[in-house]
């Protein structure tokens, strides 16, 4: 199968440029049929003290594949099953990313596997077989002690990362079965089985020819193998190989067996020196990064501002990255012509607090900016995500006093009510909140919403003042399929998912948070709620319009629903 390596969208789908044109056409207030909030009211500075401010968390790793951040999130959204999450500004850069996809089930029993170049000397064979105790068929390579059977399949040559997956088992483990990924005559990856001192092992070969243990293997046991191999990583990093067994990364960042800039052949075989019976199934090769979600353009940010304004989003809570390229989203917002229509504030995590003395003066200077979100008569709103200390909070308050600014309204985020309450007391914060809420194993969104609504009461009982979190979803299976470098503990993500919410379910949950604030004025001094999230597409929580939402429905459906949620205790929209 030939991969389309152009930067155009897939057949029948509009390109990002076309999507942005369409988005601009439908995002005006008249097209949406919405009233546009007054700028002063949207800033939380209007006379109506009962109006609840609606904020949304922003996580700005959407900077394209030229950085390892952008490449990482592009990979998480590259599988077809996750394309519905792609943001409206994304491109599908490889229209046909599947290079091999073969289960052998529809093939003729006893025949050679279709599409494979089989070498089977006398006393060996490589054929399609039915396997007892399993459904469907598999390929089997079988050899005697004097010769080897091999099966190799070429795919369209790739100079980009590919993901190779298969299942295999040996009737008797450790008999020297082989798997190789090549580019031309160079072997990039070698995997094999062996018996070493009585132990049966899966091993991979290093550049110097030595074999390194991946893990133990057992007789007549299926193993799911995945290899992610990148001959040209972003930021001029060295080519690398990651090896997974049954979803767990066993080898990370290994070097190529032999140098190559292209990948084009996958092969399996048996050992020449040992009788062996190897079964192979569910073989696939895919282009690893087949989408590009690059928001680092002023035109994209300007469109995002328009979308947020029309939906009545009062402010974005930027996870504040001082470093490039993750700072680009905030910088583009601050340079945007429409920035006065949507305010912003900071969510501080270790990226900021790791160099707190350097970063704090810049943030305090930004508190006085015309679009920085303020509450309670002008207090700058700041969220700390798990990294607050008493010293850091004191430094911030002192710096504001010295700058002639009002005392900041500091909200600490934590995962439980008691830990939030303890943190608030320890550091001297003003209120508590939570970054997000999720459910496990495909629970319905209604279960998430109910649980989160209960947390508002728990946090209030434990800590007093609360900023309720409104989670729009939770599904981290993307990061199980393609683990990110900054999240090494990914294995539990395969179970961390909640079923997708409808736009109306999200709007109903938001309305519940606004109503909670109105009925709990003593626990909602700042009268704001925080949506998770504007753009956490790969974590499963977003309200920013998606590529297919705009191309298929022609509407930002989640934002349309949010726009209709009243923000005042009287139940009127504005």
TrEMBL record:
This is Uncharacterized protein.
């Amino acid at each position: 199968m030939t991969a389309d390596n152009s930067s155009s969208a897939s057949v029948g789908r509009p390109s990002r440029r076309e999507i942005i044109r369409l988005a601009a056409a439908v995002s005006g207030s008249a097209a949406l049929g919405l009233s546009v909030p007054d700028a002063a009211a949207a800033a939380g500075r209007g006379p109506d003290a009962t109006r609840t401010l609606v904020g949304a968390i922003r996580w700005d790793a959407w900077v394209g594949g030229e950085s390892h951040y952008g490449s990482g999130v592009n990979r998480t959204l590259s599988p077809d099953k996750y394309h519905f999450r792609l943001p409206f500004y994304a491109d599908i850069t490889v229209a046909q990313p599947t290079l091999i996809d073969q289960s052998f089930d529809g093939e003729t029993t006893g025949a050679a596997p279709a599409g494979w170049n089989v070498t089977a000397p006398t006393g060996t064979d490589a054929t399609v077989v039915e396997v007892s105790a399993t459904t469907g068929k598999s390929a089997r390579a079988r050899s005697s002690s004097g010769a080897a059977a091999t099966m190799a399949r070429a795919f369209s040559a790739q100079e980009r990362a590919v993901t190779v997956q298969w299942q295999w088992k040996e009737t008797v483990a450790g008999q020297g079965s082989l798997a190789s990924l090549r580019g031309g005559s160079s072997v990039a990856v070698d995997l094999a089985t062996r018996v070493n001192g009585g132990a049966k092992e899966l091993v991979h070969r290093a550049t110097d020819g030595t074999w390194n243990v991946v893990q133990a293997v057992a007789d007549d046991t299926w193993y799911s193998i995945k290899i992610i191999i990148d001959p040209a990583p972003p930021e001029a990093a060295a080519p690398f190989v990651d090896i997974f067994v049954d979803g767990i990364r066993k080898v990370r960042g290994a070097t190529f067996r032999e140098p190559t800039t292209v990948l084009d052949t996958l092969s399996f075989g048996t050992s020449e020196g040992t009788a062996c019976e190897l079964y192979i199934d569910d073989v696939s090769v895919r282009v690893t990064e087949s989408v590009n979600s690059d928001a680092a353009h002023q035109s994209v940010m300007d469109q995002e501002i328009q979308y947020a304004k029309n939906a009545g989003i009062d402010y974005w809570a930027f996870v504040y990255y001082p470093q490039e390229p993750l700072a680009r989203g905030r910088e583009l917002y601050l340079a945007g012509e429409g920035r006065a229509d949507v305010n912003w504030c900071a969510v501080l995590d270790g990226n900021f607090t790791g160099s707190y003395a350097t970063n704090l003066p810049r943030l305090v200077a930004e508190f006085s900016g015309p679009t920085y979100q303020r509450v309670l008569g002008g207090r700058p709103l700041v969220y700390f995500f798990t990294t607050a200390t008493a010293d850091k909070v004191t430094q911030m308050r002192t710096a504001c006093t010295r700058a002639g600014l009002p005392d900041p309204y500091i909200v600490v985020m934590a995962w439980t009510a008691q830990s939030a309450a303890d943190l608030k007391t320890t550091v001297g914060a003003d209120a508590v909140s939570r970054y997000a809420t999720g459910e496990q194993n495909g629970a319905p969104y209604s279960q998430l919403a109910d649980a989160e609504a209960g947390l508002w009461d728990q946090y209030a009982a434990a800590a007093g003042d609360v900023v309720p979190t409104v989670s729009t979803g939770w599904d981290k299976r993307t990061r199980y399929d393609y683990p990110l470098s900054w999240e090494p503990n990914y294995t539990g993500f395969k179970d961390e998912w909640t079923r997708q919410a409808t736009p109306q379910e999200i709007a109903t949950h938001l309305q519940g948070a606004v109503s909670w604030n109105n009925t709990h004025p003593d626990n909602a001094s700042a009268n704001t709620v925080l949506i998770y999230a504007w753009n956490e597409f790969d974590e499963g929580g977003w309200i920013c319009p998606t590529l297919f939402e705009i191309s298929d429905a022609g509407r930002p459906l989640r934002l349309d629903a949010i726009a209709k949620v009243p923000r005042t205790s009287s139940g009127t929209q504005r």
